[in-house]
Amino acid sequence: IVFDDADFDRAIATSHFGLFFNQGQCCCASSRIFVEESVYDKFVEYSTEEAKQRVVGNPFDLNTTQGPQVDEQQFKSVMSYIEAGKKEGAKLCTGGKKFGSDGYFIEPTVFADVQDDMCIAREEIFGPVMQIMKFRSLDELVHRANHTHYGLAAGIFTKNIEKAMRVMQYLRAGTVWINCYDVFDAAAPFGGYKNSGVGRELGEYGLQNYTEVKTVTVHAPQSNF
Questions:
Q1: Record's SUPFAM superfamilies (predicted)?
Q2: Alpha carbon 144 to its chain's center
Q3: How many distinct structural domains can be found in the chain?
Q4: Is 180 within the bounds of a domain?
Q5: Per-residue three-class SS string for 88-119
Q6: Contact, 106 vs 127, CB < 8 A?
Q7: What is the pLDDT averaged over residues 120-140?
Q8: Fewer beta carbons within 10 Å, N or C terminal of the chain?
Q9: Domain residues for 95?
Q10: Is residue 217 in a domain?
C-alpha cells in the first residue's frame, strides 16, 4: 500500500524487491500494489522503468538480478496468468513474454489498471508479475485489500505513522511491514490469516509446535476449616 505522502523512491525500490525477489517465487511476494490516486500515474511510470532495468539471466552471474522460474510447470503457470491479465483488460506496461530462447526465464512484468475481480488480482501467481491498483479512500482501500482468500503479509508506505498504525489494525494479514518489506527477526512470529496457513513460525509462538501441553485435574477433599 503506497500513500501519496510516502518516501516515493523507497516505496518503488522496496515494492520491486518485495515482488521480484527470487523471481516472484516467494510466499509473501508483494504482487498487489495499491497506490493512492494522486501518485498512481507516477508510480506506474517509475515502476515500469524500474522493471526494465532488471537483468535477467544466469543466477550465478553476479550482474543478474532475476533468474528463471523453478521448472517448466511453474513457467507455464505464470505465462498463463499473464495471458489472463491481458485478456481481462489489465494494461501491460512492460514484459509479459518469455526471455531468451532457452530455459524458463520470464521478462519482469508490470500490469496497471488492474481490477479486483481479475484473475491476476485474486490468485497467487508466484512469478515476476506486478499488479498496480488505484485507490481513493481509506475505507475503500481496507475493504479491497482484505478482499482475498490470502492473508500472509502486507506493506504500508507513508510518512504518517499514525495513519499506518490505523490501517494496520484493519488489515487481515499475519505480518504487516511499515516503510519496509521482507524484514524478519527470529523473535517475531510469522504466519498468515485465512488460506495462508495455520499457526506461526519463529518467536515464542513458533515454539508451540514443538511442545506438548499436559492438563492435570485433581479432586481435593473438602476442607475441614
A1: ALDH-like
A2: 14
A3: 1
A4: yes
A5: CCCEEEECCCECCCCCCCECCEEEECCCCCCH
A6: yes
A7: 97
A8: C
A9: 8-210
A10: no
